[in-house]
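Q: Given only this backbone (441 positions), what sequence would you predict?
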C-alpha cells in the first residue's frame, strides 16, 4: 500500500488476522475482481443516496403530514443520529459475522428503511429514518476496511472509486428526486421508494460474495503481542465474539482520555454538522427565496458533485504536510464564505455559493478522515479513534438540522440559523488548528 491516501483506510477489523481458511476464502473473493468491484461501486452509490433524496422533497413531505420546521428537520436528523449509534456496534458485527454478510444485511436493511419511510404514517417516516441511518452506518464503517483488506496494493485507487461512487450517488439522487416525483404524478412517496431498487441491485451484487466468503467468520486470530504469546494455543470455546481469538496482551491507552483525540473528534463532528444542515435545508433555503424546486434540486446536486474536487485534493495535500493547519483554514474559510453568500444573496449567487460550499465540504470531510490516521500512532489506535470520531461526530452532527429547523420556525427567517452555522465554522477552525498539529494520540 502506497501513496498519501493509503493511511485513510482504517479497518474495522484492524486487530484481526486471518487464519489459513479465512485467507483461502479471501483469495477466492479476489479471484473474481470484477464482481468485487461491482459490489463496492453499487454499495457506495447507496451510502448517501437515501439522505440526499429527501432534501428536495422536504416541503412536500412536511405538507403531507402537517409538520413544523422543527419536526421536518427530524426527517434528516434521525438518520444522522443513528449514523453515530450504528457506528458503535459495527466493528463488533464485522468481527463476529464478517464484512460481506454484514454489508449484505446493511443493504437489505437500507432498502427496507426506504420503503418503511413512505408508509402513510409519521411514525413510519421517522422509523424508516432509524433503519436508513443504521444501515448507512454499517456501510460507512465497514467499506473502507474491506477495501484495505482486499486491495492493499491498490488502496488509494480503490478509495477514489469508492468515494467517487458515493458522491455520484448523492448527485444523481438529488438531481432526479423532483423529476421522478413529477413522473410519478406528483407522488413524493414513489420518488423516495424508487431508490430502494438501487439498494436491492447492490444487495444482489453482494450475495455471491457472501456465498464465496462463507466459513471465513469465526476463524480469525487477533494480531499483535497476543498472537505471538499465544501461538499454537487454541482459545477456549465461547471465549468471545470471535471464535478462536487470542487477544493482545498489552492494553493501549484509551483514546477517550486523550485531548488530541477529542480535538480530532470535534473537528469531525463540526464539519459533519455544517454538511448535514445543507443536506437537510439547502433546497428549502433556495425555494424560500423564490427559486423553483427543480432548479433548487439541480443546484443541490451540483453542490454534491463539486465535493469530489475537495475530497480528492485535500487528503493528497494533507499527506504531504507535517502539519495541516493551512488546510484547516482553507476548508473552513470556503464553507464560511459559502454560508455567508446564502445569507446575503442566496438566489443571485446560488451557483457560486454552492461551489464554494462543495469544495469546502468535500475538503473538510477528507481532512477529517486524514487527521484520524495522521494523529494515530498505530493501526489499532487509528481504528479506535475512527470509531470514536464517527460515533461522537455523527451524534453531534444530528443536532444541526434539528436546531436549524427549530430556529427557523421560531424566527421565520434563515438569517439566525445561518449565523449560528457561521459560529460552528469558527469553532471548527479553532479545534481544527489544534487537531492539525504534528502530534499523535
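A: Predicted residues:
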Amino acid at each position: 500500500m502506497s501513496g498519501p491516501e493509503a493511511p485513510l483506510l482504517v479497518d474495522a477489523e484492524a486487530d484481526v488476522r486471518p487464519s489459513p481458511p479465512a485467507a483461502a476464502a479471501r483469495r477466492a473473493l479476489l479471484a473474481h475482481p470484477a464482481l468485487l468491484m461491482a459490489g463496492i461501486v453499487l454499495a457506495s452509490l447507496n451510502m448517501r443516496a437515501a439522505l440526499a433524496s429527501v432534501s428536495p422533497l422536504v416541503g412536500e413531505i412536511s405538507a403531507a403530514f402537517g409538520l413544523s420546521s422543527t419536526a421536518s428537520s427530524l426527517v434528516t436528523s434521525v438518520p444522522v443520529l443513528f449514523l453515530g449509534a450504528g457506528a458503535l456496534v459495527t466493528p463488533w458485527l464485522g468481527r463476529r459475522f464478517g464484512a460481506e454478510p454484514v454489508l449484505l444485511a446493511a443493504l437489505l436493511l437500507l432498502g427496507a428503511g426506504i420503503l418503511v419511510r413512505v408508509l402513510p404514517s409519521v411514525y413510519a417516516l421517522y422509523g424508516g429514518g432509524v433503519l436508513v441511518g443504521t444501515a448507512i452506518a454499517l456501510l460507512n464503517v465497514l467499506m473502507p476496511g474491506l477495501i484495505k483488506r482486499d486491495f492493499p496494493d491498490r488502496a488509494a485507487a480503490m478509495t477514489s472509486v469508492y468515494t467517487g461512487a458515493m458522491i455520484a450517488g448523492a448527485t444523481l439522487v438529488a438531481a432526479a428526486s423532483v423529476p421522478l416525483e413529477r413522473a410519478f404524478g406528483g407522488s413524493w412517496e414513489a420518488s423516495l421508494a424508487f431508490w430502494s431498487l438501487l439498494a436491492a441491485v447492490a444487495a444482489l451484487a453482494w450475495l455471491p460474495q457472501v456465498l464465496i466468503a462463507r466459513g471465513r467468520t469465526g476463524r480469525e486470530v487477533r494480531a499483535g503481542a497476543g498472537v505471538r504469546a499465544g501461538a499454537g494455543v487454541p482459545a477456549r470455546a465461547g471465549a468471545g465474539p470471535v471464535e478462536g481469538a487470542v487477544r493482545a496482551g498489552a492494553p493501549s491507552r484509551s483514546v477517550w482520555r486523550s485531548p488530541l483525540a477529542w480535538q480530532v473528534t470535534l473537528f469531525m463532528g463540526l464539519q459533519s454538522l455544517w454538511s448535514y444542515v445543507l443536506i437537510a435545508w439547502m433546497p428549502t433555503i433556495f425555494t424560500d427565496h423564490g427559486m423553483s424546486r427543480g432548479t433548487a434540486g439541480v443546484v443541490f446536486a451540483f453542490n454534491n458533485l463539486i465535493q469530489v474536487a475537495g475530497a480528492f485534493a485535500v487528503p493528497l495535500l494533507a499527506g504531504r504536510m507535517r502539519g495541516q493547519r493551512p488546510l484547516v483554514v482553507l476548508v473552513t474559510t470556503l464553507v464560511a464564505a459559502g454560508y455567508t453568500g446564502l445569507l446575503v444573496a442566496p438566489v443571485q449567487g446560488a451557483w457560486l455559493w454552492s461551489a464554494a460550499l462543495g469544495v469546502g465540504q468535500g475538503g473538510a470531510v477528507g481532512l477529517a478522515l486524514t487527521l484520524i490516521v495522521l494523529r494515530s500512532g498505530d493501526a489499532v489506535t487509528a481504528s479506535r479513534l475512527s470509531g470514536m470520531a464517527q460515533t461522537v461526530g455523527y451524534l453531534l452532527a444530528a443536532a444541526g438540522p434539528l436546531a436549524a429547523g427549530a430556529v427557523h420556525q421560531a424566527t421565520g427567517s434563515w438569517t439566525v440559523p445561518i449565523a449560528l452555522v457561521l459560529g460552528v465554522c469558527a469553532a471548527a477552525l479553532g479545534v481544527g488548528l489544534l487537531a492539525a498539529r504534528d502530534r499523535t494520540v
